[in-house]
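Lab channel / #folding
Pinned by the channel admin:
"Please post every new chain as: sequence first, then the structure tokens as a reply. Keep commentary short and put observations after the output so the thread stays searchable."

First post following the new format, from NK:
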Amino acid sequence: MKIQCLPRGWFEQIKGTMLEEQVLSHNKVVSIQSRSGFDSKPPFSEEGLKSPNLLCLTFDDVTYYSTLNVAVLVGTQEYDETVARFEPAMAQKILNHVGHGSWPVLIHCTEGISRSGAVGKVLDHYWNFVWDRKPKDHEYFIRVNPKISPNPVVERIFTEYIETGYLDEV
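Reply from TO:
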């Protein structure tokens, strides 16, 4: 499976163009948004959002979950804010979306480094090493994603989900 992690800005640039239509018709796309902020809405046109090849998920880029709430310091004021967590059900949605790995997969988050990097790394490991054994697709993943720094929480939850065998039929 060919997998590429991209920044949100790449999709914002092609929003509403013929290229958006082509990308969504030739790839499985996993779009990762944050719970709040400028990146809380998917960067796709109304028509693009209807594509069956697009999966939109919302989870924040945090590196540990001690509780569901975190304190956020804004100026000198501290606010409690609910964190949108990566959940095992999201892992299953991703696996169902990419199917049997016959389509190229594009994954984006804000920068295309942490959350998308974790999802991409796990998909690369299982599809290109464990299940399908496609070393050329793994080499492609390494070559086109040199800057990823996978979010350890997302990577751990996704990997544990697969390794515990709680998979629905993909």
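NK: The longest strand covers residues 28-33.
TO: also worth noting, Residues 96 and 170 are 5 Å apart (CA to CA).
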